[in-house]
Amino acid sequence: MVLAAYALAIGGIALALARLKLPPVFAASLAILLGLAWLSWPVWLSTALVRGGLSGTVQHLVWLHPPLVINGILTAEPAWTERSLAYHLTDLNQDVPIQLPANAGACLAVHGVLGLILWWMGFGGRASAFWLDSRKESPYKSPG
User: Fold this and answer.
1) What is the pLDDT of residues 101-120, one digit of tens each?
2) Which residues, including other chains, have CB under 8 Å from residue 61's CB and lie 6 or more apart?
3) Which of 17, 45, 72, 107 is spaced 20 to 30 Å from 135 by Cα?
4) Backbone phi, psi, residue 92, to 5°
5) Which of 27, 8, 19 is nearest to 122 (CA)?
6) What pLDDT, on a 0 to 100 scale, did the predictor assign at position 134?
7) Where in the chain are the domains?
8) CA angle 21, 121, 108 (to 5 degrees)
9) Is the pTM of this model over 0.70?
10) Pick from 31, 121, 7: nearest CA to 129
11) Helices (H), the chain
């Protein structure tokens, strides 16, 4: 469910960017870059937030971060922040104590709602998508 909600949000970002007249390839590329930046924030953003005095914000972001949420649900696994590679890349659970979430509610809600809103915006804010509207010709229809 966490990965489905995350995918819904990334797809919504790509659709919304395409709606802003970005070519589809660039919209999808930018959506993937934003998705990767979101997945990697514990490495590049946690230190800056702590130095800025925003360690409380880090905990809020942990509740929304898909890999950390999944790691919190899988209680038999140790936190990935304590594994050798991650330990040298991030301050989480070292200088910044965090509590991994016990459920995925907040993550699912934020990614799911964001994804649905962006998908709706990507299709022009209409209640029905272009392929459900019988009055419009699909731009992807093959000739003949």
Assistant:
1) 889 999 999 999 999 999 99
2) 41, 45, 49
3) 17
4) -65, 135
5) 19
6) 47
7) 2-122
8) 125
9) yes
10) 121
11) 2-19, 24-39, 41-44, 46-51, 55-64, 66-73, 84-89, 105-122
